[in-house]
């Protein structure tokens, strides 16, 4: 079965991990610092805080934003549940706003209509790797005194108007899961240009520990002394995984280029199929295509999906609208709230998209898709 996504590991990656394993540090060591510096440079900002997953990155980012019980977070339903769940775990009420029908990204007008006096964060998701309309969302955040968070789990390596994803929002989160644009096996990061937000993020991911004696309440306790001033968690990414990430970053441009080649081949071969919509990117966006979200007739989506699986093409669907999950239904969220997102979901199938796809693999996917859609 050809998977819809997978990691791309080469001998240099393996050597980097082996070197870390043979060093004096398995965690909280120099490889973490090196990886964070490389991520920050790629994002075009001063600060990167590495964490154990993309979900952890979201949790850390919302904590850094100061989300508390009673606050509201406006976000998209066309995403994995973690975008909303991590804010809900901090006590926030999640307010879902609909998406742009062309990109699947949060619609800035819908987001603005959802803002209330209790809104603290507007969180967009770069669906499939296409950057959100960052200028519009940043303008909304500035006018309403909000923080703009960009969930860039799909889009490290993407740019908008020549600016890298990571430099477009107040806070940006990355995921380094194996299917993403680069991997640390499990891992993620929060990036920001704001020193205070970075300090809050770094504290939360390390139990809230304070080691700076000038900030401690009882600094004379002893040289071993450390204090917890606010609750945090252990979301530290180890050196072994950081070493893998630093190695992967050196090939990110090649990964992005190959994804673009695969996307172009799919577009050219599938764009003429009746009832099918190929993925769209707005002017100025240069996506690192994490997914290839093909949209097919809703009434035939299941049959097309089953046909592709039967032909050995491991397609996926991304995503069930977040508020369809029982955990949100039990809180009173109802289907029909965001009809554009629900229509997008009902028609979406993710075709295989990863850098190590061969040209023969791509041709196989194309032939199987044309057969499934035309059947």
TrEMBL record:
It comes from the Bacteria. The active site is at residue 180. GO terms for molecular function: pyridoxal phosphate binding; transaminase activity. InterPro entries: DegT/StrS_aminotransferase, PseC, PyrdxlP-dep_Trfase, PyrdxlP-dep_Trfase_major, PyrdxlP-dep_Trfase_small. Its cofactor is pyridoxal 5'-phosphate. The modification N6-(pyridoxal phosphate)lysine is found at residue 180. GO terms for biological process: polysaccharide biosynthetic process. Gene3D superfamilies: Aspartate Aminotransferase, domain 1, Type I PLP-dependent aspartate aminotransferase-like (Major domain). Keywords: Pyridoxal phosphate. NCBIfam families: PseC. Belongs to the DegT/DnrJ/EryC1 family. This is UDP-4-amino-4, 6-dideoxy-N-acetyl-beta-L-altrosamine transaminase. The gene is pseC.
